Predict the 3D structure of the following.
Amino acid sequence: MAERPEDLNLPNAVITRIIKEALPDGVNVSKEARKAISQAASIFVLYATSCANNFAMKAKRKTLNAGDVMSAMEEMEFERFLQPLRQALEAYKKGQKGKKEASEQKRKEKKNITDENDKSRDEEEDEHMDDEQEGENEGEEEDAWS
Amino acid sequence: MSEKTMEEKVEQATNSKNVSLPMSRVRLIMKSSPDVSCINQDALFLTTKATELFVQHLALSSYKNGSGKETNTLSYSDLANAAEETETFQFLTDILPKKILARDYLKSLEEMKKDDDSL
């Protein structure tokens, strides 16, 4: 799948919102400035990824982890981000844990319902089997007589 | 108009736990980097969040540093100036070049040619 240049850009609406929230109320942003910030953000991702990947490779790991990203921020001299990032990550992990527990709970409940359905079906089958056996016994008795 | 409604405040509170930028798009950009194989979910979240912080930081720094305060507008030149003058933004100088007037550029070309001729 070929990657078109547009796919490596971040959505304009979200970028604009973040810019507006950062600036004092009533400040305008030129279209050119918005576009430039959006491109700068994509470059930032690439730069951060490349930097973080270096840390991972040094540790002989193939998977980029949270620690690598934090080390990259320090390397890039964005120490100001470290504290807010740590807090955000904690909140994120808590949220993920909550979601996971909620979906596991749902899965358990679903399993219980399905188990109950199977159980009642088995009981009905047992009843039928008993009737058949009684029929067979009667047949044998008759043969014995003749 | 700048006052937030109750709904927006609630949305912002829940958003502060998550990110506004789409993590799927950020992952796409990360994967386009050579030698990157796997990305842990926490790493993806951090990169996305860091990018948001970066956008805020770039916008605000450029505005404070630039001449936009008089015009109440953040312009491209504010960003280009920030890229050149601020150390942490120097990796952006290639994509945020300063603009010069065409006539100034042509003038400097002529001067360079004159220097070459006199050699």
Observations:
- Strands of chain B lie at 38-39, 73-74.
- Chain B touches chain A through 54 residues (CB under 8 Å).
